[in-house]
Amino acid sequence: MENAQSSNRQTAKPHTLKRCVNLDWLEVFAREPVGQPHTADYFRSHGIEVQEREYGTRVYREMFTLMGSDGLPCIEVRRNPASQNLNGIHDPEETHIRLVNRMCYFDDAAIRLREFLEFHHYTDVRISRIDICLDFVRFDFGDEPARFVRRYLEHKYVRINASDLDLHGKDAWEGIDINSLKWGSRYSMVSTKMYNKTMELKNTQSGLFGKPYIRQAWYLCGFIDNMQLCTLQGQEVNVWRIEYSIKSPKANWFTIEIDGKPNNKYSLRNTLSVYQNRNDLLTAFASLTRHYFHFKIYEKGVRKYRCKDKKLFDFSDVQNVYKLTLPQSVAGDGDKHRQKFNRLLRLLQEYDMTLFSGDTKNAVQTLITAINEEITRADLAKPWNAEELAILRAMFSKRAIQNNWDRVDITQVLTEVFNVSESSKSKLL
Predict the structure, then answer these.
(1) How do residues 181-228 score in pLDDT, each as one tens digit?
(2) What's the number of domains the chain is made of?
(3) Terminal CA-to-CA distance of the chain, rounded, Å?
(4) Helices H, strands E: what count in the chain?
(5) Which of 26, 62, 121, 265 could be 99's S-S partner, Cβ–Cβ 3.0 to 4.6 Å?
(6) Residue 135 backbone dihedrals phi, psi, to 5 degrees
(7) Residues 182, 288: one domain?
């Protein structure tokens, strides 16, 4: 009977809902410019209000919050590692920068953080943690989240990707009510959480709800019509959330396991440019859902891949779902190049600070530029080949000599000097 009912629900036309997709955490690793420590006083000199904490963290000696023009917290900075070279494990320029939770719910949160980093000349920027979440009242095919959880715990549905599972709920006389599930361990590169967000926001003593910016998102999506009470037509609404937490401490990629198979790993791009707007976030969420929220309707004695899919979300309207890339061809390359060149780059930058003019300084700056290009190339989705890179460097050199060299001149040089084809020119220009 259950299978028949499930089949009927799944063939029904999905509910038309606005996608309430957001970031809930955005934190990056970065390096301060050599010789220019970005202390609290540095930001004050730029007219930014700073709130300092009297103590740091286990890793960083300093921690402070930058306030926005509205007087509210905006960015958290942790800097000045406790264990520094030569005998320590961290470089003096290392820092972690995090958007405060409120800022994550802006449409252009990732762009704002990127612009901040660029303006203050941070380098070697890598996302250390990003959380992407989708809030909903019902699944797209009509399933109630609480009922889905119960059916999952009864083993009616089975998640493809086997992993550690943590549960949170209430043990009452009427029965056990599970309101939060988390798949993955603390060491997982991607962990998945499904929980009742309304319940989390509600203060059990006062009955009031926190984080008004989240409730505002719900209001705009039509989940509620009263932001203060979280109600729709007088009834409190249970808004659920599915959240993917991605930790990528080394390279600008993160690895996922396809269908829970440890040896079947693929990589996805993980840079700030990937998450520039809500369409990008939805694309990322849909891509992750295919692998980390994939369930089957359990049939005893039947292999899981032969069991019917339990349809929950319909992302057929999402046009650009990320294509997966083999990690050995991309993910490791950027990290290896970075390890190879970053040490040399830092030493050259330190040396450059001691020079004021002359041929030596020009040579050092040329090397710094070349190494930065090489690091960038290592992180490109489609790196240029040696010939293309040589052409680009020649173009850069020409620009340095003659600043008024325009696009027409570049095209001429590519054609007459380098005999570059039209297809290659379109790629380079």
Answers:
(1) 999 988 888 999 999 999 999 988 888 999 999 999 898 888 999 988
(2) 3
(3) 62
(4) 13, 16
(5) 26
(6) -100, 145
(7) yes
Q: Do both 295 and 214 map to the same domain?
A: yes
Is 312 in a helix, a strand, or coil? coil
Backbone phi and psi for residue 276, each to the nearest 5 degrees, phi listed first: -80, -20
Average pLDDT over residues 30-51: 95
For residue 9, count other CB atoms closer than 10 A to its CB.
Answer: 14
Statement to judge: residues 208 and 290 lie in one domain: yes
Domain final residue pick, 131, 165, 186: 131
Of the candidates 319, 334, 307, the one whose C-alpha atom is nearest the C-alpha of residue 283 is: 319
Alpha-carbon 61 to chain mean position:
26
pLDDT over threshold 50, residue 9: no
Residue 267 lies inside a defined structural domain of this protein: no
- For residue 410, the surrounding DSSP H or E stretch is helix 407-416
Tokens of 397: 């050199």
202 and 312 within one domain: yes
Q: Are residues 212 and 315 located together in one domain of the fold?
A: yes
- Enumerate residues 6+ apart whose C-beta is below 8 A from 328: none
Query: Are 180 and 194 in contact, with CB atoms under 8 Å apart?
Result: yes
CA distances from 260 to 155, 176, 183, 331 (A): 18, 29, 12, 19
> Does one domain contain both 122 and 138?
no
Tokens describing residue 196: 């009742």
Cβ contacts of residue 398 below 8 Å, gap of 6+?
405, 413
Element spanning 371, H or E: helix 359-379
* Separation CA 148–CA 282 (nearest Å): 22
Percent composition of the chain: helix, strand, coil (DSSP 3-state, to 5): 35, 25, 35
- Residues sharing a CB contact under 8 Å with residue 134, sequence separation 6 or more, in sequence order: 19, 20, 21, 241, 242, 243, 285
Which H/E stretch holds residue 77?
Answer: strand 73-81
Q: Tell me: pLDDT of 346 over 70.
A: no
Domain contains 151: yes
pLDDT tens for residues 262-319? Answer: 566 677 788 999 999 988 999 899 889 988 999 999 999 998 888 999 999 998 876 4
Question: What distance in Å separates the CA atoms of residue 131 and residue 238, rounded to the nearest whole number?
Answer: 21
Note down the domain range covering 344: 331-428
Contacts of 410 (CB under 8 A, 6+ apart): 395, 429
CA atoms within 13 A of residue 29's CA, in its CB half-sphere = 18
Chain segment 110-128, per-residue pLDDT in tens: 999 999 999 999 999 999 9
How far is 147 from 352, CA to CA, in rounded Å?
64
